[in-house]
Specification:
Largest sheet: none
Shape: globular
Strand content: under 5%
Radius of gyration: 15 Å
Number of strands: 0
């Protein structure tokens, strides 16, 4: 019985895995904005994004197969901070993220 429980539990991702995934998602999002964003601003946004993902890691892992729910979470929890940092409209940033992420 113990073996079956372990089979269906998803291990939490490592910090390295989180950092790489967040970096790819932000890169793809920035690319879709079609505006130049300073590397320092991208790095700052990445730090914000990673911090928020780690704070909500249990929820994100629980909904790992639901990209729409994750994109909604990103829009509610991350988008405004990054939009202010990158000086873009949150709605435009959200659309670019959804397009890049697939949610």
């Amino acid at each position: 019985m113990k073996h079956l429980q372990q089979k269906h539990t998803t291990p939490l991702p490592s910090v390295r895995t989180i950092r790489r995934a967040c970096s790819k998602e932000l890169y793809r999002t920035a690319k879709r904005l079609k505006t130049w964003i300073a590397p320092e601003k991208i790095d700052s946004a990445l730090k914000i994004y990673i911090k928020k993902v780690i704070e909500n890691l249990a929820w994100i892992v629980e909904h790992q197969h639901n990209k729409k729910a994750q994109a909604n979470w990103w829009e509610d929890n991350v988008c405004a901070d990054i939009a202010a940092l990158w000086e873009v409209e949150p709605k435009i940033l959200s659309h670019a993220f959804r397009d890049a992420y697939g949610g």
